[in-house]
């Protein structure tokens, strides 16, 4: 029996827009860029590490992995 998971409602288009916007404003994507994108997504702090990991992968040319929702 396979488990079904719910994921955070994050759209790749939104991630790309936020990253591209930051890079356009500052000509770089640094640690403040990561903070900016995560602040704009506005999810609970318990997802911070997962968001950083997935965002880092995306910025380095990989994909943005879906993040599983966690219980309270």
What is the overall number of helices? Answer: 3
Backbone CA Rg: 13 Å
Secondary-structure element string: HHH
The total of beta strands comes to 0
Q: Please state the overall shape, judged from the principal axes of the Cα atoms.
A: elongated
Profile the largest sheet.
none
The residue ranges in which pLDDT falls below 50 over 5 or more consecutive positions are: none
Euclidean distance between termini CA atoms: 24 Å
Structural class: mainly alpha
**What is the averaged pLDDT score?**
93
Tell me the β content. Answer: under 5%
Helicity, in percent? 40-55%
Word description of this protein:
By secondary structure, this protein is mostly helical. The chain is built from three helices and no strands. The model has no long low-confidence stretch (mean pLDDT 93).
